[in-house]
Amino acid sequence: MFRVPVAANWSEAPLLLLETRLECENGMAHSGPKLPQNRISGQTIIDELIRNMELGRLEMGYGILLPCLFSVYLHPDDFARLAGVQDIIKEDAKRVLSARMAEWNAGKSVFRRGATRKQFRIAQSDWWIEFFPDTEGAVPPADVEIHSELNDVAQPGYRGAKTTLIEREPTVKPETVVRDRKSTRRMAEKIFAEIRYKDDSGPQTFLVTQNEVSIGRGGEDLWVDLPLYASEEVSREHAKLRRDPASGAFTLLDNSRNGTWLNGRRLARGAEEKVPERAEIGIAEVLKLSFEARR
To answer: Whole-structure pTM over 0.85, yes or no?
Structure first.
C-alpha cells in the first residue's frame, strides 16, 4: 500500500504536478508520463481537460484567461464505446472545470504583495466541450488528444493548448479542428446576435445565446456574461443587453459611472434603449462593441 501526497489547494500546486501521472504497477508507485492503457475512462478525460486548461492559460494585465473551448479527439473504437455516456462526461467535466477555477480564485495570490489579485476567467459564458472520432488515424487506442481555445475567434498569441494523454506530439490537423468546432458550435444552440470587439485580451467574438447579457469587468463577487479585459474606467457591471423572447427585439441598459453609447449617443443611466439590428456600443469611451442581431 502507498500514499500519494495531495496539494491542499490547487492554486498552490506547481505546474509540474499537472504534467506527471502516478502509475501503480506490481504494487509499486511510479511517476512520469502516462503510459498506454487498455481503455480510456471518463475520469481520465476529465483529468486531461483540467491539465489542458492549466497549460493553456494566458496571463494578462487584469486577469488570467483560461481556455473554455475543448475539442476532444478519441480513437474511433473509444469514441463508439463512450458514445452513450459522452453527455454525462461533458456535464461532469464542466462542473469540475468551474470548481477548479473557483478554487484558484479563492486561493492565495501568487503575485507580489500589494499587487491587485488577478482573477481567473473564461471569455465565454460557459464551457464548451465536444467529442470527435479521429478519422485521420492520428489518435491511437486508449489515448485522448485535446485542442483548446481561449475564445471562438483564435488569434496569434491568444491560443489555448494541444495535449495528449500518451506522451506524443498532437497530430490532429488544425484545419480539421477548426472545421469540426465551427460546424458543431453552430448547431449546438440558437444564436440571437453576435458581438465583436477588441479588448486587452485581443480581438473577440461573443455569441448571444441567452435573453440577458451582463457586460463589464466583473470581479471576485460579481459574474458577468461578457467579461471585458480593460481599465477601471469600465465598470464591473457596465451595461446589460436584454432580448424580448416574444419579439426578438434587443434593448440596452446603462449601469455605469463613465457612460455607455449607442451609435454615438450617450444613454441615460438606468433607462433602457432599443437597439437596432446593427449597432455600435461604446463602453466608457474605452471600447467599442459591434452588435449584429441574427434573424
So the answer is: no
Contact 195, 209 (CB under 8 A): no
CA 277 vs. chain centroid, Å, equals 27
DSSP H or E run through 178: helix 174-188
pLDDT > 90? residue 205: no
CA gap 274, 276 in Å, rounded: 7
- Could you tell me the residue ranges of all domains in the chain? 40-188, 193-293
pLDDT tens-digit series, residues 130-152 = 999 999 999 999 999 999 998 76
What does the longest C-alpha to C-alpha distance in the chain come to?
A: 72
State the DSSP string of 36-56: P-S---HHHHHHHHHHHHHHT
Cα-to-chain-centroid distance, residue 261: 28
- If you ran DSSP here, which 8-state letter would residue 79 be given? H
The domain 40-188 having CATH identifier 3.30.2320.60: the answer here is yes
| Dist. CA 69–CA 177, nearest whole Å | 11
The rounded distance, in Å, linking the Cα atoms of 45 and 79 is 12
The CATH number given to 193-293 is 2.60.200.20
Q: For residue 97, which amino acid is it?
A: L
Q: Between vectors from CA 119 to CA 113 and to CA 121, what angle results, nearest 5°?
A: 160
Q: Is 120 helix (H, G, I), strand (E, B) or coil?
A: strand
